[in-house]
Write a structure and sequence with these properties.
six-stranded parallel beta sheet; 286 residues; alpha/beta; 10 helices; single chain; two-stranded antiparallel sheet
Length: 286
């Protein structure tokens, strides 16, 4: 109990805001998970945009670092790893880079086998876990071709190692899968582990200040209430971060964003691959 309370106290001290009831419940469950004596328990933190998932996750990372707990931060893609590094203040790696090694003599993307996990007493924290696929695609490439299976085999290969998975089950699942397997307690329990999971659902960020968040929340509510077949109507009024721009102003808007936010942070989202190709070609020509 004393060790559990020590975890809670340290995480709460690292929070930049007073925790919500859901965040408080999640940090208590996390403390229980960290003091669990079962072999390789799994902790899942599921939360939507604006629910304080990032705030809680970064507080957990800072608290663990202060407590000298050995941790390894990972994410499925390079961009996700970069974002994880920025908000946690610690270096994060792609899952592939950490768990696979290229076999001697192999060329290109062929011939990667599962690495040996030489870590001891280490917590592996995986962000954007909704992207972790577990569909085998056959042929060479990486390990078994099932990333989640390989990740769990890698973690379990270390002495007293365990994994924490952070993500949002409402995000698009991996290609070919109906849901994100790494965020499903029943799937993670099939590996023979005790699974503890916490969900953050209460939006704590000020919706009135963010048109993006306000509209995203409306879309989520439609999906939760089985209205996913209806097209959502985007609301532009009253928000500073979302505007309706006519097509003939797009190039000027892009140029303005490039100079203000930079190339990497200017993103165009379209409704189809066909439109994406058309926009990419047009932008590159300009």
């Amino acid at each position: 109990h004393m060790i559990r309370d020590f975890y809670i106290e340290n995480i709460r001290r690292q929070m930049s805001v007073t925790p919500t009831m859901e965040q408080d419940t999640a940090m208590r469950l996390f403390a229980e998970y960290m003091t669990c004596r079962d072999d390789h328990p799994v902790f899942i933190l599921n939360g939507a945009a604006g629910t304080g998932k990032t705030t809680l996750a970064s507080a957990i990372v800072r608290a663990l670092m202060e407590m000298k707990q050995k941790i390894v931060l990972m994410a499925p893609t390079g961009r996700a790893a970069k974002v994880f590094s920025l908000y946690s203040g610690q270096s994060a790696y792609t899952i592939h880079r950490r768990i696979y090694r290229q076999r001697t003599g192999a060329v290109g993307l062929e011939g990667f086998s599962l690495n040996d996990n030489l870590h001891t007493d280490t917590l592996f924290i995986i962000d954007e876990a909704s992207m972790i696929a577990n569909q085998g695609y056959g042929g060479g490439g990486f390990g078994s071709g099932r990333l989640l299976d390989d990740l769990m085999q890698y973690v379990n290969g270390g002495r007293n190692c365990r994994v924490m998975l952070i993500g949002d089950r409402a995000q698009l699942p991996p290609v070919g899968e109906d849901e994100s397997p790494a965020l499903m307690p029943q799937v993670m329990g099939s590996y023979g582990h005790i699974v503890m999971h916490a969900t953050l659902s209460e939006v704590v960020r000020q919706e009135e200040d963010s048109g993006i968040l306000w509209n995203a929340t409306k879309v989520r509510q439609m999906a939760d209430n089985e209205y996913a077949e209806e097209l959502p109507k985007v609301c532009f009024r009253g928000f500073d971060d979302i505007r309706n721009v006519p097509g003939n102003e797009l190039i000027e808007e892009l140029a303005s964003s490039y100079s203000r936010a930079g190339l990497d942070d200017t993103i165009v989202i379209t409704r189809s691959n066909k439109l994406a190709i058309r926009y990419n070609n047009g932008i590159r020509n300009m």
